[in-house]
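Note to self: keep these together.
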Amino acid sequence: MQHGHPINGSAARLRDPGVPPVGGATGGDAARGVAAVPPPKPPVRGGSTIVRSGALSMLALVAVGATRLVHGSLTSHATDRATYGLVGIMLAASMVASLLLPGGVSSGLSKFVAFHRGAGDLPGAWAVHRFLSRLGLTACLVLGAATALVVQRIYDLGVVDTLTLAVLTATYSLYTVDKAAMYGHGLVPQYARIELATSALAVVTTVVVIATGETAYLLPLCLGYGVFVALCRHQLRAHRRREGVPAGGRFDRREVVTFAVLGSIGTLASAGFLQTTQLLGGHFADPSEVAYLVAAVALIAPLWFLPRALALALFPAMAGAQGAGDTTAVRRQVDASTRALAVTMAPVFVVGLLAAPLVLGLFGGQEYAAGATVLRVMLCAAFLGILQVPSVNALASGPLTQARVPVISAVVGCLIGLAVVVAAARSMGATGVGIGYLVGTAVTATIPVVAVWWLHRLAWTMTLVRSIALVVVAALVTRLDVMQTWSWTAAGVTLAGFVVAGLVLSGDIRRLLVLARSHRRGSASTPVTTAV
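Structure:
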């Protein structure tokens, strides 16, 4: 993927010119005719390691998603739609703020800590961690205060809500930073245990707040994220003591800072785009319709469990492979993971599109079923966003020339999408907001997928075409009158859609299983790009 340069330039720049590489011959050795011994290649995460990390990540993210789902559902039942919409806007504001710089810091930690570890440079890995963690802490505290003041001015929040929003923004931002550090250092099991425990704490606290009639709806999330940060930092300190790494590690600060800035721009334009749509919805749409949009965002979050779990494990694995010079592993990983997401997620989205009224009714009550169109548009956008995940990780783990591609695509897609939101939301309300998000996401996703397909000459084109076609057909079926409400007929159509999706993708599923078995066996004779 690096066009003949298997190792990112920063690895070579780390070495002191006066110090020979570990395992290499000194000048005296060479003069005596002693052959240079090549340095041992550090281990790179293989497929089984990524699968284990992905499985643990999946478990942790299920806990995270369940926490948000329980929190949203209980809050929506305990309040009116206008109040629930305001809670959603506050959550969105805290998430957007966390992407301004902490998002880039998180990406930098996940990439460069793993990169230096892949290159066998533990002092460099901890030096990067220390530098980015301090930068992240400062940014999180400043953003927490600034976000609370801005939202208080716009929405006239009370003192308690303002303070709670400041704490939520700071703790959530630190949560993203420390999670990335745990993954960069390979502490996935420890992270998963902490995530499960703090998610349970947040759920229990949410139940207590609702049951006692309190209105501090963000307090449970503040508590969960705050405890998560404390426990992660304790684990990271203990891990460094166990490794006994001396101080004084070196890294290319300019490269790390540049990547962090690019990462912030990219995450703000991609993940921040979704949260910004909610803020714009609060401006252009009726408050009751904003609740439909907030509910749709909460409901599509669980559908990101698999791709987010995959990305959490895949990105540091790819960065480690780049550090070790194993670009073949990057190519193999992006191929298999793109196929896996396409064939596993398409049937799920088909069911979600067809059963939207039922899902909304279960989430917030029957009055929310009227927002089925909003949910369906957001589901289409989410499917396209999910398909790009492996491609974005493959590009971002490489040199800056490749890392810029997903950033540029995210910025372009965000700007186009926001323009559509402004134009459509005035007349179409929350549905117009969803359409703008769909258009922007389509642009954002297409560019990195095409770039990776071209760089690696991968052969999953028809797999993606079949998966996307299934989702498009399901979206068209939802326009029938019978699918506007939930009924036995709608249930039958939904079941039939799931079966048809499985049949259409059966060949792709078989090829994916063959590909996975060949990777586990490490067979060098099996081509990575299985023909379709």
